[in-house]
Fold these 2 entries.
Entry 1:
Amino acid sequence: MSEATRDRLGELTTEEKASLTSGADFWTLKPIERIGVPSIMVTDGPHGLRKQAADNDHLGLNDSVPATCFPPAVGLGSSFDPELAERVGVALGVESAIEDVAVILGPGINIKRSPLCGRNFEYVSEDPLVAGVIGAGLVTGIQSQGVGSSLKHFAANNQENDRMRSSSDVDPRPLREIYLRGFERVVKDAQPWTVMCSYNRINGVYASEDPWLLTEVLRGEWGFEGLVVSDWGAVNDRVAALAAGLDLEMPFSDGTTDRQVAAAVEAGDIDAAVLDTAAGRILDLVDKALARPAVAGPLDVDAHHALAREVAGRSIVLLKNDAVDGAPLLPLAPEASIALIGEFARTPRYQGGGSSHINPTRIDTALDALTEAAGDRVAFAPGFAFDPRTDAAEQNRLREEAVALAGSRDVAVVFLGLTDPEESEGFDREHIDLAPHQLDLLDAVVAANPRTVVVLSNGSVVALPFADRVPAIVEAWLLGQAGGSATADVLLGDVNPSGRLAETIPHRLEDTPAFGSFPGSFGHVRYGEGIFVGYRWYDARRMDVAFPFGHGLSYTTFSYGDATARVDASGDVVVTVPVTNTGARDGREVVQVYAAPESSVVERAPRELKAFASVAVAAGETREVELRIRREDLAYWDVRVDRFVVEGGTYRIDVAASSRDIRSTVAVEIDGDEVRLPLTGESSLAEVLAHPVVGPIVQERLAALRESAGGAMDADVMGDDTIEKMMQSFPIGRLAGFPGMGVDREQVAQLLALGNAPQQ
Ligand code: BGC
């Protein structure tokens, strides 16, 4: 807290301090004119500004001032490029500053635990590293403009179903390694001005009133310096929330909760210093907002639209591009006549429903962009109507018209996807299928013209039962307001696709990690899959998937040379690999580095992403790519000592083009963190053997025993190793007096005392 803030706090009454810690209305904080504290505005987020000038709501129902709708996180995350995210952040900051918005409510980096989560389009990845790195890029960019960000939704908010009550019941390892890790990275790397706590409970405790989450972990362990704001309506018990570390309740109450806070302070139920701290953080936030350099409007709509188009182009993932008649179907041949099919090409779905809903400055459609580029080589048929109430005869007519068109053209490009009512904030999907009439249409089109490209518009993965039957598939997600032109850029080859899947596309919902435990029941959802989320799950079970995490094709090809890996002075692992663009086009490759220890004391995924880089490589060029694995990212959460621990030993480093396309593997030796646990009679023989002091003594004793037992231990039949393995879990205390062991209680006690004695 600054000196100035402390002074101003001294001038405020308890009631005034309490009033500072909740909103004035939906989007503004309360001023205290008496001492010159103005009201500041906070507004959604995350992929564009939703500043409401008139009727306010937090569900995206009423209009907001026009703003650039950048690709939602599902798109941006697929770029695997934090620099691109930072540029988007800068643009969001500029738009916020022009509109005098102090804090933009984003990014959202919750883990995509299940493809069913209705809000996955607003989240980055199933992997915490991708979520954290992209999130940090956005925050850095936004805040470089003197505008605050709000990292949300903290934490373990991975579904919409019952989101305001449900308890996410998560064990410590997955909580730390999967669900909190991205937040930890953003907080440590980018210091967001605010963190937004989520609606849900975590292991029974509301996030809004969890002192462990909001204070111990966020501030104590991670060093968060900003303020914690509630999600809109997330406060259950305001006084408990304040005590837990929630500084600002949003949106507003009728004054009741402010009075509760003031009364609790007066009655001594809560320390006055706690309210001072929260009110001080609000004053600090206001100061930061006031320090923002003035930004002259108006918004350069064209420049931001161009950026939105560039980013959308970088977000598209080319899933499949088989050769037909000797050449890949994409990019579309320059002279090809095109049957453009699917309502999404004319009426794009470019964002999701709910609080992130932007009023865009303009909207590009693929139909317009392709027509502009290819003229009358393009003919369009909607193929289906979005409205599920459309009668069957009309859907049939639309299908027949499209099929006839497909048969008369060189190539068919079919836009399929999810409609607004199928996917939104506020509710989850119940399946991952495209509408039957869309799938029927595709089958009929492919029968009429096998040269068919599918373009998908969806905020989260859908099943692709047709994947083997169509030669080319473009995953075009929800791409923001310039998605239509960006999709045309990729189809025509003006942009070489470089997006990669930040979430696995499974064959079936039944294959997904949370199947059977999503969305839970009776107010609880048990995260039974533990750390095995996303590709960690499919890899551990060696399951076939439709398209793996990290996958994405290009119009060129890349080859990888031999990777090297070394541990540098800081303990990080530096990986280098030469990457050559072996094709005829310039392109970008997303180089991915996965790691896993060769053996571990805990369950581990077969590989985990530890570093990645999106690099531009010109045709024919070779680039030496250097990637850094942070030492702390190798750690697992050790429940015995309640901290992250790096295990010592050999780690396998896979340098890869996707989680299932490993191009070079190297090994690296890592020095482990020391974990000193007191030895007790319950310590297993394995634990005792691992002890630096008593381990060698016991080892010697065992060798002597083996020697003296000779044939009696039947080492020839079982092998020394087998016997040791059998003994590994034997508690040392129970060895005392055990027949044939030759150790008594006194000796065991001495051993334990030696092990527990302070070491020099
Ligand atoms: C959402 C937040 C959003 C807030 C304000 C809530 O319903 O969960 O993400 O920032 O509303 O609109």
Note: Residues 68 and 360 are 5 Å apart (CA to CA).
Entry 2:
Amino acid sequence: MLIDNHHRTINYLRLAVTDRCNLRCNYCMPSEGIQFAKKEQLLTTEELCRVSALMVAEGIDKIRITGGEPFVRKDLMVLLRFLAGLKDLKDISITTNATLIGPYIEELKELGVTNVNVSLDAIDRENFKRITRRDQYDLVFQNLKLLIDKGFNVRVNCIVLDGQNTEEIIPMLQLAKDYPVSVRFLEEMPFNGGSKSFNSIRWDHHKILDTISSVYPEYDKLESPATSTSVNYKIKGHKGSFGIIPSFSRTFCGSCNRLRITAKGDVITCLYGKPKANIRDLIRGDNSAEAVTKAVRQAIGKRAKTGFEAQENFDGVFENSMTSIGG
Ligand code: SAM
Ligand code: SF4
């Protein structure tokens, strides 16, 4: 069992399998991309499998595959097939931009993957193209509908971007009206692969909820697990629900159960902190199982209590991109 220095049990691993992506969302990375890792710097599929098995042996029972875009990695299904065979792993989830998932949807269902988060920041075609800097709208919607039809638990994640898509908050809720999906609005975070720094945001969770209530005054707050990062609601008559994730305001740190391992093997114990260890050389060395487990346990034993505490090391300027961290 992984328990941090604040008595929080860590049972959820977010595993980034690549830092590469076929889109260039403007809040995530610059148009020219970032300095992507070289192939030898990335964990191999075999190493990702071994690290996952070690973490499951330590009590991780949920793994979310993220990136970069996970499906850019050609051997992703090899990892997913391995994860599906881990008896104590209860939940395999994926976060994707839904451009490349289409051919794999049937097999994902067979493997027992249940939760798929689709990042979608615009329902308007031109706005989608402007934000992602790629013309992939039709493909994304086709795959989104396929995922819903096949019965996946689909959550649509929309980052609320001041001056870019705030007029889409209400139209986006049409998805929750028509389909059994959860549309979740996220506060933007200053991780865009540049050197963004801001101490406040205009579109925080209060403003997002006020905007929704002005059009849909009748909604119920839903019960959510203590470890949930979203506060969830249901509008009367809608098939699905909506949620708000205060990623910037960070009101959820107290019950955080997450550990992040990046495609380069960095161990991140808080989204707002610097990596606390790297396990790539350890998994490639002697006594790799003991070495990796020890390094992760040590990192978890020195975990910041909140994102604000973790952020102190950053001097307020974030040079990292979410494509390396995995969200
Ligand atoms: N490519 C996949 C996708 O977009 O879903 C997975 C990786 S992406 C980095 C994971 C999540 O991070 C996405 O939901 C994305 O919207 C979110 N993200 C990226 N940059 C962000 C930022 N600056 N603020 C808040 N969320 C961000
Ligand atoms: Fe790619 Fe996801 Fe970043 Fe968009 S948010 S550029 S899809 S990694």
Note: The mean pLDDT is 93.
